[in-house]
Amino acid sequence: MNIIEAIQRRHSVRQYLEKEIPEEIVERLLAAMRACNQVGGLHMHLVLHEPEAFSGLRSKAMRFRGVENYIILAGEKDDTLEERCGYYGEKVVLLAQQLGLNTCWVGSTFKKKPECYNLAPGEKVVAAIAIGYGANQGKSRKSKSMCDVSDGTEVSLSVPEWYKNGVLAAMMAPTAMNRQSFYFERFGNVVSVEAGKGPFTKVDLGIVKCHFEIGAGKDNFQWMPEDM
User: Fold this and answer.
1) According to its UniProt record, which protein family does this protein belong to (predicted)?
2) What is 146-223's CATH number?
């Protein structure tokens, strides 16, 4: 499975089987997280065989079942932390999909277990990602149109294919409550994306940037200076 296929096939999964993640796959995930932690200045941590975080009433109300493995996304608090967690966390999510695993981004419906990931002073948990072998593969969700989330991608023949492909990949990104609260604009080969308002929209912004870069191809454009 290539990375574009991973974007297309990956859906949120909340029910998981009692099936061990093989050691070789764990090692590949850990290597990817180490690289992302170093480049992104994060503290991503894989927690295995820990059922308590998703055993509470809130998790059950959100239909989480059988979650014993999850990734914690954390880092030292600053204005960019949430976006960085989204961007680099989604890189690990897509790798997990390529390795045959299923995932689900989780904002607040889990119990924090700080003894499992030993945060440093000043570090903050932003989100978690449930991971494992799903009882199903999830399903597609309703999506906004390209014109709802970008400037002119459906109405102008002059829009380059790389931009359309980037927006399309971004539209397949997971976002909180499926709000898709973001908007892309293009100025030649310079691209800007703005997050909407609401909880976890900065995390969503990092996720959609990750998807856009993959769909558009990083060599075809550059982000506005204030963007990643």
Assistant:
1) Belongs to the nitroreductase family.
2) 3.40.109.30
Boundaries of every domain in the chain: 3-132, 146-223
Quick check: 15 and 64 in contact, CB under 8 A?
yes
In angstroms, the Cα distances linking 61 to 44, 64, 108, 126 are 26, 8, 12, 21
pLDDT tens over the chain, length 228 residues: 999 999 999 999 999 999 999 999 999 999 999 999 999 999 999 999 999 999 988 898 889 999 999 999 999 999 999 999 999 999 999 999 999 999 999 998 899 898 999 899 999 999 999 999 999 999 888 899 999 999 976 656 689 999 999 999 999 999 998 999 999 999 999 999 999 888 899 999 999 999 999 999 999 999 998 754
CATH of 3-132, one of 3.40.50.2300, 2.60.120.260, 3.30.300.30, 3.40.109.10: 3.40.109.10
HSE value, Cβ hemisphere, 13 Å, CA-based, for 107:
14
Please give the model's pTM, rounded to 2 decimal places.
Answer: 0.94
Rounded-to-integer distance, Cα 71 and Cα 81, Å: 16
